[in-house]
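Practice problem 4.
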C-alpha cells in the first residue's frame, strides 16, 4: 500500500466529533496557519495519525513523502524539509496558545525528537488568580469604615484626570503619525524596482529555491583537469566513474566530489535573501546544486549563485543570455562574452588574476524559468568578492533602483534583464561596482 493510499484511508469525517480534531481545525483556521498551507498540512497529518492510533508510523521519511511530496525512498539526510517545518510548527503552536488560543483547555504539541502529536488538558486560569484575597483580607475590606474625601483631594484628582486624558490624546496622535509614516515608507518601497524584483522571486503560490554553488565540483575539476557536463552531473556518474585527464589520485577525487562544499559569499547571499521583507520562509528552501532536478527549472523560482564550472545546470538557460561567463581555465582565458555588443561595448571582457588594479567581473541575470510560469535569478562572478558585489547590488537596492527606475515605470512587474558589472577587489572585498552594460527583455 502506498503512502498516498494510507492518507486516503484516513477520512476526516470520522474525527469530526473528536474535540482534539476540533482543536486542530480551530488552529489551522487562524491567519498564521492559513498563510502556510504546508504547516497546516503537516499539523493535520501528524494529528490525524496520532488521534487514529498510528503515531508509531510517523517518521521523517514518510512525512516527507506524504506531506511534502518527496520521491518514495528519498534520503532525509540530504533534504531537511520535514525537520525545518516541524521546528516552525512548534513555534507557531506555542504562539497560538499564547495568543488566540490562550483560553483553550485542550492543548496540542509536537515534542522535539518525535513527530507524534500530544494532546493534554489544562485548567483555565482564573481572572482572580493573581489576587491574594484570603478570608482575613476579605474581612478587613468588609469592616473598613468609609473614608471621606476632602474637596481639595477631589479637585486634585480631577486635575490629574484631565492631565492624563491630555497625555492620552498626545500619545495617540504620535502613534497615529508613526503608523502613517511607516505606511508611507512601505508604500515608497512597494514602488521600487528592488521590491518588484523580489516580489516576483518570492510568491505565495510557488516555491523559491536558493541554490549555492557546488564548490566541491570546482575542486574536483581542478584535480581531474576537465569539467563535468550536465548529463554526467545530473546522473551522478562523474562521482562513481572518476576520470582524470592528468595524473591525479582517483580516490582523492571521488572523496572531494562526494562532499557538499559551498562558498562564504553564497552563504552570505542566502542570509541576505532571508532578511528581505518580501521573503516567504514557508515557500523558500535552500537546495544544493547536486539535488536539483529538471522539474525545478520548470515549476519553481530559482535563485542561483555561481557560474557554469560550479553549476552545470546553467546549460539549461544560457541560450537566453547575452553575457556569458567563461570560467573554465582549461578552455581558454577567463572572460565574459558579449554575444550582441552595442555601441561603446566590447565583444569580450577579460578577467586577469594578475591585474594590478584588481578589477573583477560579475553578472546578474533575471530570466523566465523553463516553464514560463516563474523566474530565475542568477548571480555569478570570477571571484568571491565579485559574486558578493553582485549579490549586494540586487539586495541593497540603492544602485539597482537607480538603474532600473526608468524601465519599471508604473508597472507592477520588472522586466527580465541582464547586468554586467565591474568590481575592484580590495583585500578580498569588492568596492562599489560599476555597470559596464545591461539588457532588458519584454
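Answer key:
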Amino acid at each position: 500500500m502506498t503512502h498516498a493510499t494510507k492518507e486516503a484511508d484516513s477520512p476526516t469525517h470520522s474525527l469530526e466529533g473528536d474535540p482534539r480534531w476540533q482543536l486542530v481545525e480551530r488552529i489551522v483556521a487562524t491567519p498564521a496557519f492559513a498563510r502556510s498551507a504546508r504547516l497546516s498540512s503537516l499539523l493535520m497529518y501528524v494529528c490525524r495519525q496520532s488521534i487514529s492510533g498510528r503515531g508509531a508510523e510517523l517518521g521523517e521519511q514518510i512525512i516527507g513523502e506524504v506531506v511534502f511530496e518527496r520521491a518514495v525512498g528519498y534520503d532525509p539526510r540530504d533534504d531537511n524539509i520535514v525537520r525545518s517545518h516541524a521546528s516552525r510548527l512548534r513555534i507557531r503552536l506555542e504562539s497560538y496558545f499564547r495568543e488566540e488560543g490562550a483560553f483553550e483547555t485542550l492543548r496540542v504539541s509536537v515534542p522535539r525528537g518525535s513527530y507524534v502529536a500530544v494532546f493534554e488538558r489544562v485548567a483555565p486560569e482564573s481572572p482572580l488568580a493573581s489576587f491574594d484575597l484570603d478570608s482575613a483580607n476579605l474581612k478587613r475590606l468588609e469592616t473598613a469604615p468609609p473614608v471621606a474625601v476632602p474637596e481639595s483631594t477631589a479637585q486634585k484628582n480631577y486635575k490629574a484626570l484631565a492631565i492624563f486624558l491630555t497625555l492620552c490624546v498626545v500619545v495617540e496622535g504620535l502613534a497615529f503619525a508613526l503608523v502613517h509614516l511607516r505606511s508611507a515608507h512601505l508604500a515608497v518601497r512597494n514602488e521600487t524596482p528592488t521590491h518588484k524584483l523580489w516580489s516576483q522571486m518570492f510568491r505565495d503560490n510557488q516555491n523559491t529555491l536558493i541554490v549555492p554553488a557546488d564548490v566541491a565540483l570546482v575542486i574536483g575539476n581542478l584535480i581531474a583537469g576537465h569539467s563535468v557536463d550536465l548529463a554526467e552531473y545530473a546522473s551522478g556518474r562523474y562521482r562513481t566513474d572518476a576520470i582524470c585527464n592528468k595524473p591525479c589520485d582517483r580516490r582523492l577525487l571521488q572523496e572531494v566530489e562526494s562532499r557538499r562544499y559551498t562558498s562564504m559569499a553564497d552563504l552570505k547571499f542566502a542570509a541576505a535573501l532571508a532578511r528581505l521583507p518580501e521573503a516567504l520562509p514557508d515557500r523558500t528552501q535552500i537546495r544544493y546544486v547536486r539535488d536539483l532536478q529538471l522539474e525545478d527549472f520548470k515549476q519553481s523560482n530559482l535563485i542561483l549563485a555561481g557560474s557554469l564550472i560550479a553549476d552545470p545546470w546553467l546549460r539549461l538557460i544560457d541560450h537566453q543570455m547575452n553575457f556569458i561567463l567563461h570560467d573554465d581555465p582549461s578552455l581558454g582565458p577567463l572572460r565574459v562574452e558579449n554575444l550582441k555588443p552595442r555601441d561603446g561595448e566590447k565583444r569580450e571582457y577579460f578577467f586577469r588574476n594578475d591585474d594590478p588594479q584588481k578589477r573583477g567581473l560579475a553578472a546578474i541575470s533575471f530570466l523566465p524559468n523553463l516553464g514560463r510560469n516563474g523566474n530565475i535569478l542568477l548571480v555569478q562572478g570570477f571571484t568571491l568578492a565579485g559574486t558578493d558585489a553582485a549579490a549586494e547590488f540586487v539586495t541593497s537596492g540603492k544602485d539597482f533602483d537607480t538603474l532600473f527606475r526608468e524601465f519599471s515605470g508604473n508597472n507592477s512587474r520588472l522586466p527580465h534583464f541582464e547586468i554586467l558589472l565591474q568590481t575592484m577587489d580590495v583585500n578580498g572585498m569588492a568596492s562599489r561596482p560599476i555597470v559596464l552594460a545591461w539588457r532588458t527583455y519584454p
